[in-house]
Amino acid sequence: MRATLPLIALLLVSGCVAPPKAPPAPRPVAVPPAPTSVALPPPSNDWRDWPALPGSWTYAPSTRAATFGVAGQPIAARIGCKAGQVVLTLLGALPGALTVRTSSTTRAIALAASPAGEIQARLAATDPLLDAIAFSRGRFVLEQAARRWVLPAYAEVGRVIEDCR
């Protein structure tokens, strides 16, 4: 019996051992969600939200004119002074009506071909529309049926207008 006592103790102690742990479950593989198409908001009808043309105004004191565009590319717009008139020239414009939108006013003006073949609008230097353009909040828009120029109202525009007065 003495010999069986250690065997019984050994059996009892071996019964206290925990069963082996099960291997961990494999990590779930993250499946990316299926791409969903996000509808872009429709273009705003408010001209103040329209994106501005790329580029910047550059003033040339020798010609009393400011040009707008990207360096190394044809200009998009030019505003200058000739014989007491402010002359607005637009690349890609057509003769006819042009709507000018500023933060304080909206008005249609006439565009016509110049002798050099450029499409221009001529305004008296004292025209209140020029002040509205110069003091427009951040931008002004020149708009025809097929084309739109959203231009920043930088100081160069006001400088040309003041030089012409």
From TrEMBL:
Keywords: Signal
Highest taxon, organism lineage: Bacteria
Signal sequence residues: 1-18
Protein name: Lipoprotein
